[in-house]
Amino acid sequence: MTEQGVTIYLVEDDEAMRSSVARWLRLADFHVEPLAAAAPLLETIATDSPAVVVSDVRMPDMDGRDLQQAVQHIDPDLPVILFTGHGDIDMAVEAMRNGCYDFIEKPFNAERLLESVRRACEKRHLVLENRNLRSQMEDLSGLHARLIGRSPAINKLRQEIIDMAPVDANVLVIGETGTGKEVVASCLHHLSPRHDQPLVAVNCAAIPETLAESELFGHEPGAFTSASTRRKGRLEEAHGGTLFLDEMADMPLEVQAKLLRAIQERSFNRLGSNTVRNTDFRLIAAINTDARGAIQRRELREDLYYRVNTIELHIPPLRERREDVPMLFSVFCEHAAVVYDRPVTYPDSATLTALMNHDWPGNVRELKNVAARYTLSSLPPEERLGSLLRQDNDIAPAPGEGLREQVQKLERQLIQDALRRHEGRITPVLEELQLPRRTLNEKMRRYGLRG
Ligand SMILES: Nc1ncnc2c1ncn2[C@@H]1O[C@H](COP(=O)(O)OP(=O)(O)OP(=O)(O)O)[C@@H](O)[C@H]1O
Ligand SMILES: [Mg+2]
């Protein structure tokens, strides 16, 4: 292979034509693979092939334009040069519009063909170099390890994170609960030039309404009754770094108005102070419903939404990317095994099928919890999941269940929750549930739970 390692696949059914074009190309130092038909080409090339295709349009087994479409279905950036003896401007225009790299009429000028092939090789080389660089960047950044998944949606999201991380534009991350909004925010921060500055996360849903302003903007002593000392707000703490406003639509509307001003001007006042303070942060916000709905319900100010959504990143729910389930589950089982010092149990294929068929209303967080419980369970591997998914769905009565079964289900759930809260330590569970050790042991055995 010469010309930067690229092979020229020359597809031409006419033997005389094929050997003369191949000769020209070889004389110009290209590496040529002559083919008499289109079909073998499609078996040879793949995504990322270091290849350029030069093909006749009229061939017995396939029209060159169809071949071009098929090639670009395999790799949309693979250059295809077409030539034809039946001079037809319309066909040329249409082929170019459909992504053909160049269109050359027969009888053609050898120089014109060689020049076109040279440029196509150059382009192919650049595209491949770029892809290689990107995948190295992804490996370097650890993005694959932080944001796990191979579905097209997650691949695209990782790409968007790489593209958007270095710019300072505001980002709005949208996704249902547990889909990984915080993971995305932290990836954006860690791949940004601000990565060695603070990432300050504010959970807007968790701050009491009356304290929201002081939490964000800080206060001076005496600003309100309980404000005895000076306090820096989160906006100030985020100076130089990234401010992550989680569940933004849960912030009181008046505070949203103040926040809007602070974002626009990158300045604010502490409560009880007239001094205007400047702050420089990159803003990432998250909401877990559709923004339009939140605006209509008057939970989210429209102007704030438009200020924050310069870039919108959507994370689809897990049920729309079921192919990510096996990998996520295996990785979470490995984590859980390390954390709880248990052997790793990898799911068998029946378990995987059941996992992929589950709807995951709690998304990746729910999957992570199930993986932890799966790892902790003492049941034989093939029996573990049934009980986990059933009870994870909820403990509402199933059809035909009497009071006894329902009470048992609830009891099992309460014991399991307590075990989880205390990370499997029995003594605090005994204290919390006020049970004698023997009774707890007996119930744990009956319900297949382990400490
Ligand atoms: N693609 C992923 N790869 C690895 N871990 C993930 C992924 N998505 C989510 N997680 C894990 O799942 C859990 C939930 O993720 P995260 O807290 O980011 O979700 P969220 O969208 O912010 O949820 P909420 O709406 O409840 O705040 C975390 O433990 C996180 O590490
Ligand atoms: Mg979150």
UniProtKB/TrEMBL annotation:
Q: Name one GO molecular function term.
A: sequence-specific DNA binding
**Cited CDD domains:** AAA, REC_DctD-like
Q: SMART domains recorded for this chain?
A: AAA, REC
Alphabetized UniProt keyword annotations: ATP-binding, DNA-binding, Nucleotide-binding, Phosphoprotein, Transcription, Transcription regulation, Two-component regulatory system
Ubl conjugation is among the record's keywords: no
Per its UniProt entry, which superkingdom is the organism in? Answer: Bacteria
**PTM-bearing positions, type 4-aspartylphosphate:** D56
Name the Gene Ontology biological process terms: phosphorelay signal transduction system; regulation of DNA-templated transcription
Q: Which InterPro entries match?
A: AAA+_ATPase (IPR003593), AAA_lid_NorR (IPR058031), CheY-like_superfamily (IPR011006), Homeodomain-like_sf (IPR009057), HTH_Fis (IPR002197), P-loop_NTPase (IPR027417), Sig_transdc_resp-reg_receiver (IPR001789), Sigma_54_int (IPR002078)
Magnesium found in the keyword field: no
Instruction: Specify the Response regulatory domain's residue ranges.
Output: 7-121
Question: Which residues belong to any copy of the Sigma-54 factor interaction domain?
Answer: 147-376
Q: What is this protein called?
A: Two-component system, NtrC family, C4-dicarboxylate transport response regulator DctD
Question: What organism does the record attribute this protein to?
Answer: Aquisalimonas asiatica
